[in-house]
Amino acid sequence: MKEKIVAIVLGAGEGKRMGSGIPKQYMIIKSRPLIYYALKAFEHSPVDEVILVTGEDEIDYCQKYIVDKYQFEKVSKIVAGGGERYESVYLGLKSIGDADYVLIHDGARPMLNADIIRKCIINVRRYKACVVGMPSKDTIKVVDNDTYAVSTPPRRKLWQVQTPQCFEFQMIYEAYQKLIDSGDTMATDDGMVLENYGDSTTQVKLIEGSYDNIKVTTPEDMRIAGSLMKARKLFRFLHNVHDKIIYFQMKILQKRFFTKR
């Protein structure tokens, strides 16, 4: 029986730090709404199905102006999220029914690409639980309530956690069910939920994503993401030009070889 891989794309946040009055997932970047880019990445990936979690009042809008407009055929459901991220993830998980693996991704990370998704699928099969991130470039300080430095953890042991965060479906669903039943409201990422409420024999593996895989939270992030997209487009163009040059060089050499013979 073929395994089933489902992606949950979270788009229910209000984006208060953006200061625009518009939910950040619908703000336009390079002529597309921000959430479009994550959905597009999963649409052209080995993922079988996508669950889009959004605000209850935004379901019809997402269906008409995002899913239908851009023909995202893998989006099987649009689900109303909760007030906090962990509630939205739980509601997304509940809507799946059955799956082998689930990839949970923040819709505000538009730089998701095929390579990161491929790594996620390979590693979740191997480790059962894996989270995308990157080693911290900066020294991190632990502070007290008055922002005085308390300690400085070794930088080599610190990672900046990103998404997708990937798990065997039943394992993360059961961990989230325990979280909800406990009344704990402090969970800020999915790996943390598994660490606190999952099977103690399963550890969360960190896998390298990309420093480009930023989360858009502020107006400055929108500008950075736009610049990264321009750079990615230019790189693809130069790569295609390079391939064509190599192709024509090979054709010329081939023609010369056969002419001499």
TrEMBL record:
What reaction does this enzyme carry out catalytically? Answer: 2-C-methyl-D-erythritol 4-phosphate + CTP + H(+) = 4-CDP-2-C-methyl-D-erythritol + diphosphate
Q: Where is this site: Positions MEP for the nucleophilic attack?
A: R155, K215
The record ties this protein, via Pfam families, to: IspD
**What InterPro entries would the database entry show?**
IspD (IPR001228), IspD/TarI (IPR034683), IspD/TarI_cytidylyltransf_bact (IPR050088), ISPD_synthase_CS (IPR018294), Nucleotide-diphossugar_trans (IPR029044)
The residues annotated as site (Transition state stabilizer) are R17, K24
PROSITE patterns (alphabetical): ISPD
Which top class of enzyme applies to this chain?
transferase
The protein depicted here goes by the name 2-C-methyl-D-erythritol 4-phosphate cytidylyltransferase
Specify the species: Anaerostipes rhamnosivorans
